[in-house]
Fold:
Amino acid sequence: MWTASLDTPSGSSPPPALSVREAPPEGEPRLLDRVRLAVRSRHFSPRTEKAYVAWVRRFILFHGKRHPEDMGEPEISRFLGNLASAGRVSASTQNQALSALLFLYKVVLRRDLAWLEGVARARRPAHLPVVLTRREVEAILARLRGTHWLMAAMLYGAGLRLMECVRLRVKDLDFARGEITVRDGKGSKDRVTLLPAAAREPLRAHLERVRLQHQDDLRLGQGSVALPGALARKYPNAAREWGWHWVFPATRHYRDPHTGELRRHHLHESVLQRAIKEAVHKAGIAKPASCHTLRHSFATHLLENGYDIRTIQELLGHSDVSTTMIYTHVLNRGGRGVQSPLDAPAEPGRGQTPDSARQRRHSTPQKDSP
Structure:
């Protein structure tokens, strides 16, 4: 008897067998390990791997630990329906669960069934992004200090995403050209954005402090950082080089599970999230502002300054200009240059203000209706 092999804590008893199935040959990876291997072989991000494995595990547990090969479209539809009705998850969360299950059946289990292509995805509602005014951005930045201020200034001044900011490396900054090279951003794409002039000198001072910390780590044999892919094998000394070091390193070391050496990771994203949340609260801003709101504000304020939509698209790293066009709907001008009739001045022969209309109504004799 064998069920879908789920990870169980050491020392705990395995889950009861609820599906009659041959045990896998010795040495063959378990189902969740096969999912991990398939995700890694396609160079998906670690966060995607974690999410896919979590959804597959949750799907199996929802159906009483039955093996996915014994289930199909009815079980997937029931699971997704339960997420929407009982779990009340958003459409994007429901679609993420569906993507994980489609990956499981089509890639891992290699079941090329027609119903897989016909599974309907939840429709995501079109929400306008939350955008801060310039004064609100200034109020938030005024309540941040040190590294928190610098990182928030990069989010707003360069239009960076949160993870793009915390994963910046020293070699990606070009002070002479005033540019930031974003490596392996969303969709595994690289792009070039601007380095704000107001943040350059504070950033130079910050990097000098980080360099001294890096030199102290090197003297203690702890100055290496993690490298992407297989670069550590290709360039054995690159992990200790200054150019590969994090711009915003963590305050503590961690022990690498593969090499066993002490390394320094980048600052965790939750540190900046908490700092900005607290700054928003102290500034008395009622909007649900977050780190990503600074990126939305970056794009909107550039549009207000008259920059063309294509330039902003490249700075943000959007594949389609229609994604960038959403910021035209949150401008004060409505994105179309339309002025409210309440705010528009009266034109001779074409309109009148409320005061002039009131005066005309009282000064003009009213005729009796027929």
Q: What stands out?
A: The first strand starts at residue 173 and ends at 174. Residues 31-118 form a domain with the DNA polymerase; domain 1 fold (CATH 1.10.150.130).
